[in-house]
Amino acid sequence: MSGNPGQLRVDAVGPVSDSAAALPAPAVELTDVAARLGGHRVFSYVTLTVRPGEFVALLGPNGAGKSTLLKVILGLVGHTTGTVTVLGAPAGRRNRAIGYLPQRHAFDADTRIRGIDIVRLGLDGHRWGTPVPLLSRLLRPAHHRQAGQRLAEVIDLVGAGAYARRPIGQCSGGEQQRLLIAQALIRRPELLILDEPLDSLDVPSQAGISALIQDICRTQRVAVLMVAHDVNPILPYLDQVIYLARGGAVMGRPAEVITSDTLTTLYGTPVDVLRDRAGRLVVVGQPDAPAHHPGPSR
Amino acid sequence: MQPHLSWDLVEDVRQMLAFPFMVNALRAGTLVAVVAGAIGWVMVLRRQSFAGHTLAVVGFPGAAAAIWLGVATGWGYYGACIASALVIAALPPSARRGGLGGFGEESAVIGTVQAFALACGFLFVSLYHGFLSGLTNLLFGTISGVTGTQVQVLLLAALPCLVVLAVLGRPLLFASIDPDLAGARGVPVRLVGALFLLMLAVAAAGTSQITGSLLVFALLVTPAATAHRLTARPALGVGLSVGFALVASWVGMTVAFYSPYPIGFWVTTVTFAGYLLATGWRLAADRVGQRRRPGSAVASAAARGMPA
């Protein structure tokens, strides 16, 4: 992993402005944002910036509000204070330009819809009407061909060609996740929001999906904001991490944020970050999250 | 005159169509099968079979009350089914979590309501003296009682239902498969779900008038489940489901006409046989497909004579 101990942007409050002028407009910018859910304060004073083409992980113990933060960015949950700007507009306005993968359980084995149909829903699933494949081929041949091309392209991009025509319930967890990423990508989004896409995948699939997301981030210039339960599979690829805990957030490079000092300050109790010989990080001693990072237990 | 079944199928059909009540029954059966096949396919996808059954069972006290009060049974079926669909749709969404918009932990409540609905229906039948054969007709269906007005009412209910289904189609599929994502993309998931429940109520109320309240699943679930077994393509699946429902309804009525046994039994038998065949075919196809991975889906699609 890149161990750049540059300037610490740890207690990051306010937008980052290290190399001021040349930076493109941020994809996501939150300033002093607070959110409440069911009358409870989930977090407050969250400030973060995700720039185009950046791969950013959102970490934190269970119940810290990671999914809620994503929903605030999508405009599905309102914020009580602060400002949220997503792709140059208030939250929720430009959701069509966002590829979103909600946190989910795998499809049931007897869900008999083909993967390719599910990917296709990403293109036009929100539009009223019922598509009749034969009719659209006859009436709008150019449109039909274009949609088909984009579908093939995006399935090829995630490497799902071999199983895209199988019922999705019969695909493995990793295959389902690839198809869902294709669905999120089909409209060429500027921002990809992924809620625990590695959850409940086996280790080789985790590595495969992580590499795929990094590849998409670099080649398609898509900003990626990804909630992760375990940072290790994506650690080598990350530009920034946001650590959410105890109602607050810290943002910076992984090497700056995932340290004993920073996390101890964030949690307010002693927390240790250990590193094993393979470079994997293990966070030890954090309250309320016994199995947060895998590895040797305390 | 007593109809005689012969080996001349054209003559058989001509004999059957000579009876106006059979023409009405076939018209009604056709309308009901189209709506039930299409709506049923989505219901099976959404795992809302339990809701569909509840709506159908609630139709029984509605129809019984209509007979007791001297109103046409159609009013009772549609009134009770649509009212209960509105109630289910108004339940807070948190109470209906679980699966793809299914009922989850609410199933105990729904079961309780179903029992009460059946009991109420029986009470209304008892209150209306001297209509004993009506009870089995309401529960298990009949072909003899379909009037011309009833066919018109079925048509008036079926048309808007199919139009709404066609308008909702794609977002409904999206919201059924992935409600979170559909919501994020601007699909009004709750509204779509509520509208679907209303369509389901119309389908259940219509089907009840042919197969009886207890056997609605013969047209609402079985053809749809059979289609789901055979294909994973949405458009083809809906088409197959409607086709199976139509065949079951026509064959069931014809056999019921020439035999002394009720229509509900025959329709159910036809769909059940189809379902068993489709299940066997699916098991065999999956086994062959597993032996020939990768590209099994393409192979099995080709085996079915479809473009892959």
Explain the overall architecture.
The complex is a heterodimer of chains A (298) and B (308). Chain A has 298 residues and is α/β, with parallel strands linked by helices. In chain A, 28% of the residues lie in helices and 22% in strands. Chain A has eight helices and twelve strands. In chain A, the strands form three sheets. Chain A has a six-stranded mixed sheet, with helices on both faces. Residues 1-20 and 289-298 of chain A have low confidence and may be disordered. In chain B, helix 2 (20-46) packs across helix 11 (222-230), helix 3 (49-69) packs across helix 9 and helix 12 (234-258) packs antiparallel against helix 13 (263-291). Mean pLDDT of chain B is 84; it is low at 95-105 and 295-308. Chain A binds chain B through residues 74, 76, 95-96, 98, 100-102, 104, 111-114, 117-118, 121, 124-133, 162-163, 165-167, 183, and chain B through 45, 165-171, 173-174, 177-178, 180-187, 228-229, 231-235, 237, 294-298, 301, 308.
